[in-house]
Amino acid sequence: MAAVSTTPRQKAGWGTANVVVVALALIPVLWMVSLSFKTPTAILDPSFVPSQWTLGNYTGILHTATFVRPLINSIGIGLIATFISVVLASMAAYAVARLRFPGKALLIGMALLIAMFPIIALVTPLFSIERALGLFNTWPGLIIPYVAFGLPLGIYTLSAFFREIPWELEKAAKVDGATPFQAFVRVIAPLAAPGMVTTSILVFLACWNEFLLAISLTSTIAARTAPASLAYLSGSSQFTVPTGPIAAAAVVITIPIIIFVLFFQRRIVAGLTSGAVKG
Amino acid sequence: MSTSTQVAAETAAEKSAGRRRKPPLSEGAKAERRLGWWLCAPAVIVMLAVTAYPVVYAVWLSLQRYNLELPNEVKFIGFANYGAVLSSPYWWQALWVTVLITVVSVSVTLVFGMLLAIVMHRTLFGRGTIRTAALVPYGIVTVAAAYGWYYAWTPGQGYLSAAFNYAAPLTSQYKAIAVIIIAEIWKTTPFMGLLLLAGLSLVPEDLQKAAKVDGATGWQRFWRITVPLMKPAILVALLFRTLDSFRIFDNIFILTQGNNGTGSVSILAWDNLFNALNLGIGAAISILIFICVVIIAAVYIKGFGTAAPGTDIERR
Question: Which residues of A touch B29 (CB under 8 A)?
Answer without folding.
Answer: 100
